[in-house]
């Protein structure tokens, strides 16, 4: 399988995301005089309508903004309801928790887990406040102008794109099991013909258009303290949910300083916990001490990347939690001495990852860049497909199930509890070189995200590939233990048989995955030294890139 897409070269500005209509919405704002943040917000708002299995108004958002001088980070993730406790979850699930899910890709591969659907994993949605807070700080056009395309597509309808239709169909098929009253609205909105819309079919969601108008007109106040908030609290009270008006009214986003690790003369930036960007930084910090490998031994370099990713995840799963409730030793985990010790743990054979002990003291991604040098890396999600599958009647959006990221281990720093932000899988990335911006990047896809970041950065920095070629390069995916999936491209490409045989000889339990979705979907925009940008978007799905 090949993905023969070419990069986009843009003289002034660019937008890259996973759905072409959303990319066009961002470009339209740029053409009307908006900046990169305005374009990112118009794109993000439109994505909730044109790619609803992966993100919605009821989700969370994270962003990194290069303002022309420095980086800013926004954590717009929500907290758990005040009434959510470990004892309540255990009581609701018969004292055992739910069956383990692969949503955290090994974080909960054994033992008890949070339920994936229904009200228990619902946390306060951070997306509407995130849109407002980004606009308050950096926006240059009226907030309501950013909603025009999204409202139009929701009210008048739009033809569903091919990749979105496939994801949608899988999600609706998986929805057949839930029967509680909290799920009653799901079918009316997202399966109006008793099934998911097919590719090219026109789908409308006028209830979402109404919600978006209310958010635009009130600058999101209606969502947290007005009509939408009241409707959410009432629906939860009627159908067994814990979310209250006080939970919504107390929500705040948090501006944070991105954290980085050095990689071959570059700096790779991620947001600090509660996100899992730390896993990518740990892996790259470990790999920075290795040479990429001789031309005749690509399998060894791939093996080292896989083992570094395993160690990064082991530490992230052990330590990442809500930093407002439990300090996370970020500086200690990224210290050169600790990274060196973790590097020494990598041998020539596949290993089962074990967390170290430092010295203590379903998702959419988009990126934009404008003529003034501002660049944005933004990711938003309801998690898995349609999140909790709880849809607010009359308002047309699904609520996220981010509480699935909590643990049920009583002593774990990320144990479920009231008013906490859970471990988050969605992570925006940014690359600089000696302090100068290179550009925003991201790879969506749950547990794939940090390892997608690692593979994109190594392809860019070590192999010198442009954004599109780096995104199109064959990928691998580690889930848990020694199990490893590789893309068909990797196995069948030049030298692929030798790489596969070498990895298996090292103890990797390797299989070739025919389905590209497991390997994530990404975008990247790099600044060009002579001016303008070069951008790439995912070829494995309905990726869209636009420029001017």
TrEMBL record:
<dbReference type="Pfam" id="PF01019">
    <property type="entry name" value="G_glu_transpept"/>
</dbReference>
<dbReference type="InterPro" id="IPR043138">
    <property type="entry name" value="GGT_lsub"/>
</dbReference>
<keyword id="KW-0378">Hydrolase</keyword>
<dbReference type="InterPro" id="IPR029055">
    <property type="entry name" value="Ntn_hydrolases_N"/>
</dbReference>
<dbReference type="GO" id="GO:0016787">
    <property type="term" value="F:hydrolase activity"/>
</dbReference>
<dbReference type="InterPro" id="IPR043137">
    <property type="entry name" value="GGT_ssub_C"/>
</dbReference>
<dbReference type="InterPro" id="IPR052896">
    <property type="entry name" value="GGT-like_enzyme"/>
</dbReference>
<protein>
    <submittedName>
        <fullName>Gamma-glutamyltranspeptidase / glutathione hydrolase</fullName>
    </submittedName>
</protein>
């Amino acid at each position: 399988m090949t993905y023969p897409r070419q990069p986009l070269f843009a003289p002034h500005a660019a937008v890259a995301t996973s759905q072409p209509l959303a990319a066009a919405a961002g470009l339209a704002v740029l053409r009307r005089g908006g900046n990169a943040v305005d374009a990112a917000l118009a794109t993000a708002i439109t994505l909730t309508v044109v790619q609803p299995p992966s993100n919605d108004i009821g989700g969370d958002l994270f962003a990194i903004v290069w303002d022309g001088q420095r980086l800013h980070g926004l954590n717009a993730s929500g907290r758990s309801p005040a009434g959510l406790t470990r004892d309540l979850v255990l009581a609701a699930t018969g004292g055992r928790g739910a069956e383990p899910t692969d949503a955290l890709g090994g974080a909960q591969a054994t033992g008890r887990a949070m339920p994936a659907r229904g009200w228990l994993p619902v946390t306060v949605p951070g997306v509407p406040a995130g849109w407002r807070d980004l606009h308050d700080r950096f926006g240059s056009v009226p907030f309501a102008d950013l909603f025009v395309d999204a409202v139009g597509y929701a009210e008048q309808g739009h033809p569903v794109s091919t990749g979105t239709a496939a994801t949608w169909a899988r999600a609706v098929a998986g929805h057949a099991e839930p029967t509680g009253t909290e799920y009653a609205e799901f079918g009316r909105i997202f399966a109006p013909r008793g099934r998911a819309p097919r590719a090219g079919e026109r789908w409308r969601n006028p209830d979402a258009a109404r919600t978006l108008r209310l958010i635009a007109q009130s600058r999101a106040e209606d969502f947290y303290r007005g009509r939408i908030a009241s409707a959410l609290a009432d629906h939860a009270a009627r159908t067994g949910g814990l979310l209250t008006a006080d939970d919504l009214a107390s929500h705040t986003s948090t501006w944070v300083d991105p954290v980085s690790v050095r990689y071959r003369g570059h700096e790779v930036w991620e947001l600090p916990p509660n996100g899992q960007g730390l896993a990518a930084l740990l892996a790259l910090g470990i790999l920075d001490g290795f040479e990429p490998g001789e031309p005749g031994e690509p399998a060894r370099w791939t093996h080292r990347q896989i083992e570094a990713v395993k160690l990064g995840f082991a530490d992230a799963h052990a330590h990442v939690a809500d930093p407002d409730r439990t300090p996370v030793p970020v500086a200690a985990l990224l210290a050169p001495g600790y990274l060196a010790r973790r590097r020494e743990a990598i041998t020539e054979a596949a290993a089962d990852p074990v967390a170290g002990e430092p010295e203590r003291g379903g998702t959419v991604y988009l990126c934009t860049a404008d003529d003034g040098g501002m660049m944005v890396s933004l990711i938003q999600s309801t998690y898995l497909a349609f999140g909790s599958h709880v849809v607010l009647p009359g308002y047309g959006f699904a609520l996220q199930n981010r509480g699935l990221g909590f643990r049920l281990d009583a002593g774990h720093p990320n144990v479920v509890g009231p008013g906490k932000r859970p471990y988050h899988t969605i992570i925006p990335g940014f690359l600089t070189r000696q302090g100068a911006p290179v550009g925003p990047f991201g790879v969506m896809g749950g547990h794939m995200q940090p390892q997608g970041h690692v593979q994109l950065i190594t392809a860019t920095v070590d192999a010198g590939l442009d954004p599109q070629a780096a995104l199109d390069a064959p990928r691998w995916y580690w889930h848990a233990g020694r199990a490893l999936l590789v893309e068909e491209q990797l196995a069948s490409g030049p030298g692929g048989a030798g790489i596969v045989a070498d990895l298996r000889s090292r103890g990797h339990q390797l299989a070739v995955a025919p389905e590209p979705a497991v390997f994530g979907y990404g975008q990247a925009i790099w600044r060009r030294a002579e001016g303008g940008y070069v951008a790439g978007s995912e070829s494995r799905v309905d990726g869209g890139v636009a420029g001017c």
